[in-house]
Design brief:
This protein has 589 residues and is α/β, with parallel strands linked by helices. It is built from 20 helices and 21 strands. The chain has three domains: 158 residues, ATPase, nucleotide binding domain (Nucleotidyltransferase, domain 5), CATH 3.30.420; 153 residues, 2-Layer Sandwich (Nucleotidyltransferase, domain 5); 206 residues, Alpha-Beta Complex (DHBP synthase), CATH 3.90.870. A hairpin with a 6-residue loop joins strand 6 and strand 7. Helix 4 runs antiparallel to helix 5, helix 12 packs across helix 13 and helix 16 crosses helix 19.
Amino acid sequence: MSRKAHIMNTNSKDLYILGISCFYHDSAACILKNGQIIAAAEEERFTRKKHDSDFPKKAIQYCLKEAGIRVKDIDYIGFYDKPLLKFERILLTYISTFPKSYKAFRSAVSVWIKKKLWIKELIRKELDYEGKIYFIEHHLSHAASSFLVSPFKEAAILTLDGVGEWATTTYGIGKENEIKLTHELKFPHSLGLLYSAFTYYLGFKVNDGEYKVMGLAPYGKPIYYQKIMSNLIDLKEDGSFKLKMEYFAYHYSDKAINKNFEDLFDGPPRTPETELTQRHKDMAASIQKATEDIILRMVNRLHKETGLTNLCMAGGVALNCVVNGRIIKETPFKNLFIQPAAGDGGGAVGAASYIYHCILKNKREFVWQNAYLGPRFSREEVREYLEKNNIPFKEYNDADLINTVARLITEQKVIGWFQERLEFGPRALGNRSILADARNKENWQKVNLKIKFRESFRPFAPTVLEEDTGAYFDLDCPSPYMLLVAQVKKENIPAVTHVDNSARIQTVNQRDNPLYYDLIKSFKKLTGCSAIINTSFNVRGEPIVCSPHHAFLCFMKTEMDYLVLGNFLIDKKFTATIKNKLSELVDSF
C-alpha cells in the first residue's frame, strides 16, 4: 500500500507507530496510537541495569501490552538515529587521529560490524516485524521529541547533547507539523562532551554523573572559569564555538581527556569515591558557569534570529535545570517546553512523532500531558504480591490513605510512595518517589546517607502545590518535570534548599496527579506547608523501581519507615520476621 493510500485509510483503522532508541545509553521504547503517546518506558526499569543500552525488548513488550496490540498491528517503526551516518563519523574520526585511535578503532569496529550496523535486521528478527522502518537523524529525533508534543503551534528549537551522528547542537524552527533545523555544530565540538570531560575529571561516571557536577557546583566558586574559556574553547558572540582538541581524548580513545588537560588543571582526575576537595567544588562551579553562559548566548541568538517567544529544548544537556531556570528569568523567551525524557530515551518519542507528523503529514492534536507513561499495577496485583510473600499490610481507601501518610510525614517518617503509572524520564514525579518533611533540615542527610546511600552534597527537590509555587520560589510558571531551578523565598523548607538558596522544583496539580496533589494538600492542612521532599524511589546505582517487588526490596534495604503500594501501607516494624527471607522472594510480575 502506498503512503498516500495508507494516510487516506487512517480514519477507518487505528495507526500505531513504535519508536525505539538503543545501543548508546538509556534505551527506551514508546508507542503512538493515532499520534497520541499511549506508553513509553526505559529498558533499565525492567532489566534493573542502570542506563541499559541494549535493544529495549522488555520496554517494547510493555508498550505493546499497554496499547493492547501485537507486533503485526504496528504500522511503522521509527529508530532515533541513522547508524550508517554515525558509523561514517566514527570511521573518519578514527582515521584522522590514527595511530592514537587504533585501540578504540579496533574495539568500536568490532561492535559495529557485529551489531550496530544491522539494526534494521535486528528489529525484524527481535520483533518478527515485516513493515516499514524509518531511521530519523538523532537531533531531528530530539527536536521532534520536544516540539511535536509541545503546546506551541510555532516555536524556536534548540537541541544539545554529546553527539548524534555528526551534530552536537542544532537549532531551528518548528511550525505546525514541520521542523526545520537551520544551524548545527558538529563533532568533536560538543558542549555535552565538554561537560562530560569535567564529569570524568571530577571522578564521576560519564553519562551518569553530570547531574552530580551540577549539584556540586554551588559549593564552589568559578575560579577556573577564565582558564576554561581561554584554553579549552573558542567561543563566538553568537554562541557557536570550537573546542581546542589538544586537551581532549574522546575523539581517539575511550577516555574523555588527555595529559594536556591534566597539566592545565594541575593534576590527574579525582579517583572515584575519594574526598571531594574545595578544588573539585570550584571546578564544578566553573564548568557549570561556562555551560550556562554558552547556552544563554545560543538562546539569545536564537531569539534574535527567529523573533519567537516560545522555545523547545531537548538533548541530554537540556536536563541541566540550572541553566533552564536562567533561560526563563534572563532571556526574551516567555515560554519554555522540555519534556521529562529530554535525553536519548526521549528519542524514541521523537522518532515516532516525526513519522506521524512530518512524514505522514498528520495534524498535531496531541499535547504532552504528564510523565506517567509506564507500567501500572492494579490493587488486586499488589494484594496478591503481598499475600503471596506473607508481607504484613494495612489497606486503606484513598482519603484515609492520604490523611494517614500526611500525618506520618509530619511525624518525620520517610515514606516509599508507589502509585499508578511509572514516570518516563530520569525524575521521579510522585508515582515512584521517596517522600519526607522538607521543614526538617536533618532529613537532607538522613535520606541521602541512610536511605539513598549517596553523596551527602547532593540536594533534594521539593514538590510544591502548583498554586503555591510563587509563595515559596522565585518562579512564575509551572515546573511539572523538575527541570527548572529557582531561588527559595521561604526559610521553612531547609531540607530542599541548596547551599546557594536554590531548589530544583516540581510543581503538581490535581489534574495530572490527583492522589499526590491531595497528599501534599493534606500535609499543608496539618502543617501550613505546601512543599515536601520528593526524591526518586531507588538507591544509588539502581534504576527507579518499577514493580511492587522492586519497591519492596528497595524498602527493605534502606531505613525507610513505611512503604505505600497503592492503597496498602507496610510498616517497617512489622517486616522484621521476613527480613532474612528476602532472597526467597520471587518477582511474579
